[in-house]
C-alpha cells in the first residue's frame, strides 16, 4: 500500500517532461493543493516516528506546492526542535542551535502569514522561554 502511495505522489509531483508543452490551466489548482496535503501527511507520519530529517524533507516538499500552508510550517518547527534535541543528546550544541534557529524561522513565518494565528506566537514563546531562556524576548 505504501508503495502505491509513493508512486501516486511521484506521478503527481514529476513535471510532464515527456508531454508537449501545454499552457497551465486554472483546473490544476486542486492537484497542487492535494499534492501539498499528501507531502504534509507523509511528513507528519515521519514526525510521529521521530524521523526528523525525513519529516523536514517532506514538509519542505509540501511548502513547494503551497508556501502559505501554516500546518506545514508548524510541524516543520516541531521537526526542527526534535532534530535539535537529538544533537543536544549527543553533546553537539552548535548543531542544535542551527536547528533551533530554523524552528524559530518556521514559527516566525506562521506569524507573518497570519498574525492572528496564536500557534506561531506560541511556538516563538516556547523557543524563547523554554529553549533559549530569553524570557524578555519571549514576552515581546
From TrEMBL:
Check the UniProt entry and state the signal peptide residues, or none: 1-19
Keyword Transport listed? The answer is no
Q: Where are the TPR repeats?
A: 36-69
Q: Out of the domains of life, which is the source?
A: Bacteria
Q: Which UniProt keywords apply?
A: Signal, TPR repeat
Listed InterPro entries:
TPR-like_helical_dom_sf, TPR_rpt
Which protein are we looking at? Tetratricopeptide repeat protein
Organism of provenance: candidate division WOR-3 bacterium
